[in-house]
């Protein structure tokens, strides 16, 4: 599983970097995204829904949002 640390980046960078990471993955691959931008709680699930990929899990621990995404 790939991990992408986007903590400290502000909108729209977490969504843009997530999109770029997903574009480089093979079908069925999983990436875990960690970020601190509160807008990512809206932006990343929306991006995943638009791309057809699967948001397998999302979590918040303090100010860190974590998303687990499987490439379609």
TrEMBL record:
SUPFAM superfamilies: SirA-like. It holds the Pfam family TusA. It comes from the Bacteria. Residues 4-28 form the UPF0033 domain. InterPro entries: TusA-like, TusA-like_sf. Belongs to the sulfur carrier protein TusA family. This is Preprotein translocase subunit TatB.
């Amino acid at each position: 599983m790939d991990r992408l640390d986007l903590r400290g980046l502000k909108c729209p960078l977490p969504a843009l970097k997530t999109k770029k990471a997903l574009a480089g993955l093979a079908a069925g691959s999983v990436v875990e995204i960690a970020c601190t931008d509160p807008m990512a709680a809206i932006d990343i699930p929306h991006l995943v829904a638009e791309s057809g990929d699967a948001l397998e899990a999302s979590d918040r621990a303090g100010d860190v949002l974590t998303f687990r995404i499987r490439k379609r």
